[in-house]
Amino acid sequence: MEDKEVNLVDQADQASDSESLLEETNKSKIDADVLQNIAVTLSLEVGRTSLKIRDIMSLSQGSVVELSKLAGEPLDLLVNNTRVAQGEVVLVGDRYGVKLTNVVPASERVKNL
């Protein structure tokens, strides 16, 4: 009879563990749903450069600033300043768009955000 009591206790523990796992799964789903509805800043980086303040002060209309990327290199698509993809500029009607050519794997994107 003692064996049966132990088995019932084990079964109760397993049921409790299953309920906890189900609650965690449901909570994760809710958290994921909430996360998916958060707005983030998306930007396309053409290139970067460093300038001295005196050079910035001397900029005027028509000035040309050389950037780090070469012509034809893919541009970086950033979410909150973290690269999530690379692509090239395309026209979408009368607006600019970006055609993605390389996307960071989803697991890395989430980890880096």
Automatic annotation (TrEMBL):
One of its GO terms (molecular function) is cytoskeletal motor activity. Residues 1-23 are annotated as: Disordered. Belongs to the FliN/MopA/SpaO family. It is found in: Cell membrane; Bacterial flagellum basal body. Transmembrane segments: none annotated. This is Flagellar motor switch protein FliN. InterPro entries: FliN, FliN-like_C, FliN/MopA/SpaO, FliN_T3SS_HrcQb, SpoA-like_sf. Residues 35-104 form the Flagellar motor switch protein FliN-like C-terminal domain. It comes from SAR92 clade bacterium.
